[in-house]
UniProtKB/TrEMBL annotation:
It comes from the Bacteria. One of its GO terms (biological process) is chromosome separation. Pfam families: SMC_ScpB. Keywords: Cell cycle, Cell division, Chromosome partition, Cytoplasm. This is Segregation and condensation protein B. Gene3D superfamilies: Winged helix-like DNA-binding domain superfamily/Winged helix DNA-binding domain. The gene is scpB. InterPro entries: ScpB_csome_segregation (IPR005234), WH-like_DNA-bd_sf (IPR036388), WH_DNA-bd_sf (IPR036390). Transmembrane segments: none annotated.
Length: 173
């Protein structure tokens, strides 16, 4: 295998895996001599050191990992923080499931099912545009009615609510 092809495969492997990969594992996976592999990894390390690259190749205890350059952190930290905030917690998923299956539903109904206060969870789901207020009930306090959004459908890869698994199917699993 030529060096350019080997470099391309190693880069793809490191990018896909994300975590450090030992040189032994790379060697075993690619069936390449350790000396040749080390030479290609050193070349890659040098190439990533140029200023125009946003990546670097880190070596720790004969394991390698692709990483962003630390000098770029100030430019990407807000994006990383926003992405992390988009991940759903278990309480968020539970609340979202209740809303998806029972909509339109009030906060009180959600809390009766979950058995805990859901103020912050509902606020987080509203902030992430996974749910919205579709109206209010005409009773004391005029509680909000919550429903899922089109963004919810998109995020979970479904066309409509009919594509949700039935509750009976979920109970059997």
């Amino acid at each position: 295998m030529n060096k350019d092809k080997l470099k391309s495969i190693i880069e793809s492997l490191l990018f896909l895996w994300g975590d450090p990969i030992s040189i032994k594992d790379i060697e075993k996976c690619l069936k390449v001599d350790k000396k040749d592999l080390k030479m290609v990894l050193d070349q890659m390390k040098s190439e990533y050191e140029i200023e125009s690259s946003g990546l670097r190749l880190i070596e720790v205890n004969e394991s390698y990992q692709l990483s962003t350059k630390p000098e770029n952190f100030d430019f990407i930290k807000d994006f990383v923080r926003e992405s992390a905030e988009k991940n759903l917690t278990k309480p968020s998923l539970e609340t979202l499931s209740i809303i998806a299956y029972k909509q339109p539903v009030t906060k009180m109904e959600i809390e009766d099912i979950r058995g805990v206060n859901c103020d912050s969870t509902i606020k987080g789901l509203l902030d992430s545009s996974l749910i919205e207020i579709s109206g209010t009930l005409d009773r004391i306090g005029h509680p909000n009615l919550y429903v899922t959004t089109d963004f919810f459908l998109k995020k979970f890869g479904i066309k409509n609510l009919e594509e949700l698994p039935s509750l009976e199917d979920l109970r059997r699993d």
